[in-house]
């Protein structure tokens, strides 16, 4: 399971010109689910996200988590995080989970975040979405439950 995490002042996701998810201060998370992923990967990534210290403390050091700042998390599914563009010009998505499996893990991911007393918002699985965010820092972190990078 992979995630691109951005610290935001605000973020929203739109489908058909309608806002379907929105947060203020918090994390924008693009989530990709691989064909080998299990609930173990999901729990690893959830724990990493909620405790990732990328918000500044009083001294300006990145020392606070989304839990500490009482921020929200906006999750957007994105199978393209598993794109492999090493050959040719058209990326391959063979490592991405098939949609049925990915949607189940995506929903469990959202539920697991919600159980941690965090305001969770989300895009719509498999929808064509527009994402608007104010990346603070900018801070962008790549996470992979298999620790391949």
By DSSP, the count of extended strands is: 8
Taking the alpha carbons of the first and last residues, their distance comes to 12 Å
- Can you tell me the overall shape? globular
CATH class: Alpha Beta
The ordered string of helix (H) and strand (E) elements is EEEHEEEHEE
- Named CATH architecture: 3-Layer(bba) Sandwich
Per CATH, the superfamily is D-tyrosyl-tRNA(Tyr) deacylase
Mean pLDDT across all residues, rounded?
A: 96
Count of DSSP H/I helices? 2
- The whole-angstrom Rg is 15 Å
Given helix and strand content, the structural type is: alpha/beta
List unreliable stretches of 5+ residues.
Answer: none
| Proportion of residues in helical segments | 10-25%
> How many discrete structural domains?
1
Beta-strand percent range: 35-45%
Main location: cytoplasm
Keywords: Cytoplasm, Hydrolase, RNA-binding, tRNA-binding
GO molecular function, one term: D-tyrosyl-tRNA(Tyr) deacylase activity
Protein name: D-aminoacyl-tRNA deacylase
Question: Would you kindly provide a brief summary of this structure?
Answer:
Keywords: Cytoplasm, Hydrolase, RNA-binding, tRNA-binding. The chain is α/β, with parallel strands linked by helices and 149 residues long. It contains 2 helices and 8 strands; from the N terminus they run E-E-E-H-E-E-E-H-E-E.
Task: Report what the structure shows.
This protein has 149 residues and is of the alpha/beta class. It has one domain: D-tyrosyl-tRNA(Tyr) deacylase (D-tyrosyl-trna(Tyr) Deacylase, Chain: A). The chain is 19% helix and 38% strand. The strands form 2 sheets. Strands 1, 2, 3, 6, 7 and 8 form a 6-stranded mixed β-sheet that branches. Strand 1 and strand 2 form a beta hairpin. Helix 1 packs across helix 2 (99-114). The longest helix has 16 residues, at 99-114. The model has no long low-confidence stretch (mean pLDDT 96).
